[in-house]
Amino acid sequence: MPRKKEVVSGNFVKYDAVVLGSGPAGEGAAMKLAKAGKRVAIVDMREQLGGNCTHVGTIPSKALRQTVSSIIRYQRDPMFKKVGDWKQFTMKQVLRNAHKVIQQQVDTHSRFYDRNKIDIYHGRAYIQDKNTVLIFSDDGIKETLVFKQLVIATGSRPYHPAGLDFNHPRVFDSDKILDLDFAIQKIIIYGAGVIGCEYASIFIGLDHKVDLINTQHKLLSYLDDEIADALSYHLREQGVLIRHNEQIDYLETYDDHVVLHLQSGKKIKADAILWCNGRSGNTDGLGLENVALTPNSRGQLAVNDQYQTEVENIYAAGDVVGWPSLASAAYDQGRCAGANMSGELNVKPVKDIPTGIYTIPEISFFGKTEQELTEEKIPYEVGQASFRHLARAQITGDTVGELKLLFHRDTLELLGVHCFGNNASEIIHIGQAVMQSPNNTLKYFIETTFNYPTMAEAYRVAALNGLNRLF
């Protein structure tokens, strides 16, 4: 258990720093501050720690993905019989393993706070002034925390547009979908960003019919074109119907189905709709007006390179500051905020971030795309390795995908790494490490011995493929 909280005056408890939110950003900040010798408190609305990442975001959705991926692998293995009635599973049933993982994560992170003597408060935080936070519990009991510095790491939630009734049992957002407790055959996913594409691959993996509504002209336009095209082709091949350049007009809801009306005149009927179009920062009701902080239209706070807001002693990190809205980056943002608050010098902001997209199969990249290098007129070449040619992929059956290396024609400097396929989010880190090393060159992959058979061998294959293009 955390140490006994020291009441310094009446109901007031004094801290060097108070952190609002116990997700990755809040944890990163709290741990950094505590290790710097600061007296730290963390406040979370839930009775369990971990934030949205642990309870409704990264952990449950990736555990769900893993279960579906296992079902797909089982189904394609000719050595085994059909799984049986798995198509009738509800989301809650598929997520049984996820709940075990969630509790394990809660227990692990609780020990971290205990070990670092960080006080924990559960309740709703309200910023009274630039040195005071009030904590309200469900029964109305109030505690007052006085602080020198504050970190806002309250995360984000799915954006809810006006006109959609998310209380209806067949209208879901990416949080609510985890509680789907009835069987469906067809689902509409509105929004083809990262979350929409991930859930499209999950539901099609469960053999549901999926209509993926994309408000843009292509999927995930910030990806390298070839990787985006590969994802689009794979989803369509699996049975996802992708509709580009569409906008919602209105939604009809019934007891047993929904009908989505698009501005193009199309009408789509399904058992349910999953809204995945945008997220909002959790800043409403925090009392930001009391410290003259104004979030943008999506509830996000502006910060400088030190993750400091316009108020000198108030910092913010994670989804609540917007880009890149990744759990990995959020932790590092919180850590950087804590380092700056502790007076460390030359703390670099979080910029060089590998992107991981947990579709089935995964996508991950680091560095420049072909489009960017072309626009910058950098003379580059491409090295590719198709997974279907790798012994490890042939053994596991995960033959869909490729590794793509972009490198400078003259210096052989590695400029970008792009991967589509099983375990892409793991494979990418080899390229990331090389790109950030002082001896960044394609020759590393030629001169280094890789275990065989492995997926990492794709780097050697792609490097040789690229070098062959130079002659």
From TrEMBL:
Q: Where in the cell is it found?
A: Cytoplasm
Q: Which Pfam families match?
A: Pyr_redox_2, Pyr_redox_dim
Describe the location of the FAD/NAD(P)-binding domain by residue ranges.
Answer: 15-334
Annotated positions binding FAD: K62, T154, G155, S156, D319
Q: Which residues constitute the signal peptide according to the record?
A: none
Q: Which SUPFAM superfamilies match?
A: FAD/NAD(P)-binding domain, FAD/NAD-linked reductases, dimerisation (C-terminal) domain
Which residues does the UniProt record annotate as the domain Pyridine nucleotide-disulphide oxidoreductase dimerisation? Answer: 353-462
Q: Where does NAD(+) bind?
A: G191, A192, G193, V194, I195, G196, C197, E198, G278
Q: Which GO terms describe its biological process?
A: 2-oxoglutarate metabolic process
Spell out the family assignment given in the record's similarity comment.
Belongs to the class-I pyridine nucleotide-disulfide oxidoreductase family.
NCBIfam families named in the record: PRK05249.1
Relate the protein's function as given in its record: Conversion of NADPH, generated by peripheral catabolic pathways, to NADH, which can enter the respiratory chain for energy generation.
The name on file for this protein is Soluble pyridine nucleotide transhydrogenase
Species of origin: Acinetobacter radioresistens
* Lineage, highest ranks first: Bacteria, Pseudomonadati, Pseudomonadota, Gammaproteobacteria, Moraxellales
